[in-house]
Amino acid sequence: MRRPRRFNRRLPPSAHKGKPGAPYVASGPRKKQEAIMSLRFLDLARPSRQHWLGYLLLLPAVALVALIIVYPLFVSLDLSFQKIGMATLSAPRKPFTLENYHKLFASPDFWNSCWVTIKLVVVVSAACFAVGLGTALLVNNRFKGRTLARLFVALPWAVPEVIAVVIFAWIFDSSFGLMNWLFIKLGITSQMINWFSEPTAAFWVVAITMIWKGYPFVSIMTLAGLQSIPEDFYNAAKVDGANAFQRFWYITIPVLMPVLGVTSVLVVLWVFRDLSIIKVLTDGGPLKATQTLSIMTYDQAFGFFNMGYASAIGIVTLVLCVVASLLMLGRKSQAMY
Question: Where does this one sit in the cell (predicted)?
Answer without folding.
Answer: Cell membrane
